Amino acid sequence: MSCSGSGADPEAAPASAASAPGPAPAVSAPAALPAGTAAENKIPDAVTGYYLNRAGFEASDPRIIRLISLAAQKFISDIANDALQHCKMKGTASGSSRSKSKDRKYTLTMEDLTPALSEYGINVKKPHYFT
Amino acid sequence: MADAAATAGAAGSGTRSGSKQSTNPADNYHLARRRTLQVVVSSLLTEAGFESAEKASVETLTEMLQSYISEIGRSAKSYCEHTARTQPTLSDIVVTLVEMGFNVDTLPAYAKRSQRMVITAPPVTNQPVTPKALTAGQNRPHPPHIPSHFPEFPDPHTYIKTPTYREPVSDYQVLREKAASQRRDVERALTRFMAKTGETQSLFKDDVSTFPLIAARPFTIPYLTALLPSELEMQQMEETDSSEQDEQTDTENLPLHISPNVAHLLFHPRLSPRRKSSTSACGSPLSYPVIPSKQQSPSPDDTDPSLHSLIRQILSYYAQALNQTLGCSRG
Known about the structure:
The complex is a heterodimer of chains A (131) and B (331).
Chain A: E1 2-5, H1 12-19, H2 23-35, H3 45-55, H4 62-92, E2 107-108, H5 110-119, E3 122-125
Antiparallel strand pairs in A: 1-3
Helix pairs in contact in A: 3-4, 4-5
Chain B: H1 2-17, H2 25-48, E1 52-53, H3 55-82, H4 90-99, H5 107-113, H6 172-197, E2 200-202, E3 212-214, H7 224-227, H8 231-240, H9 307-330
Antiparallel strand pairs in B: 2-3
Helix pairs in contact in B: 1-2, 2-3, 3-4, 8-9
Region (Disordered) (chain B): 1-29, 273-306
Family (chain B): Belongs to the TAF8 family.
Main location (chain B): cytoplasm
């Protein structure tokens, strides 16, 4: 599986550039801290802490770990939502019956995931079969 | 509906990917957390609205999630160290997220929205603790060079060897009794040995072997002991004429045996120096000739015992025996 990802997203860069200079991140970040309590995060603190420790990050405050796990969750859920949009678009593109509305059975396939990831600058290429 | 789909999705992804054989606990460690991330990804997909997912997609997203977390950690650490600090703060993380293209403003809204499923952490296996009933003794505390989070030392009985020995008895009475009984046993054993190897006389006519007595050898010249000078005079004589060496002409005729009638108490070496007619040729080690020790005039060439030194030796042994008997009767 070959996956190349660039950190900078061309679409999100203008939005983040607006919030990059000084006071804007400092204002938004503390608001995220009390909101992100342990009960709401999907990723347990132990798991996130484990991967952060492997990277050399020693967290003094557990809220920092929850913030990071929340950010990672959002990252994945954004991609999932984009993939869902792709899946829905493919389903209703050829003008099938509106009443069924794709009978609410969406399966995440690599065909939907690949274009969603390419918008983020991540290019994946999975071989169809192994020889 | 969402919960059932989540469990179905999670179980599906779990069974499809659970074909690895993990061997050591380190691999288990990694796999447990990886599995947790997979469960998280599956629940996120379910939240987004997917009913099922391809295994390849779930694996892709899991890999992305793991790298994302690791990259945030690495980058935040770099930013923190860039400003000469060691502990990352909130601003380091915010800057990291911004650099990675993450829109930080949308975070609070997302936090408020996702309040549904909680994933439990992978179980932590503790060290096997020996139950209280089986512990014996105090564990050794850690020396200073070992951190405190290391496991404790095992029970001391597993690695300390203490040799067991009995304290020797130092009671005076017991020691005296022991010494006396030992001396009695030694005397009895030696006299029995002599009786068995030499000539014996018996008190009882019928029973010869029960109470053997060492055969008494009467003096051929009974009054010899009275005529001979005492030991002290002998020593003086030795000193005055140390240059004289008497030949052993008379030694062959003298049956020099000291065997008083207190035979059952004596232990003495038999002196039969040059007997040709060896009636006492029993082969006992006690009948070997005695080589007298020269204390005043050491001359290695003189191996033949002179008459004077022989007699002196005899008298010294006799005196010793007398002392012994008197000591036994007194003590």
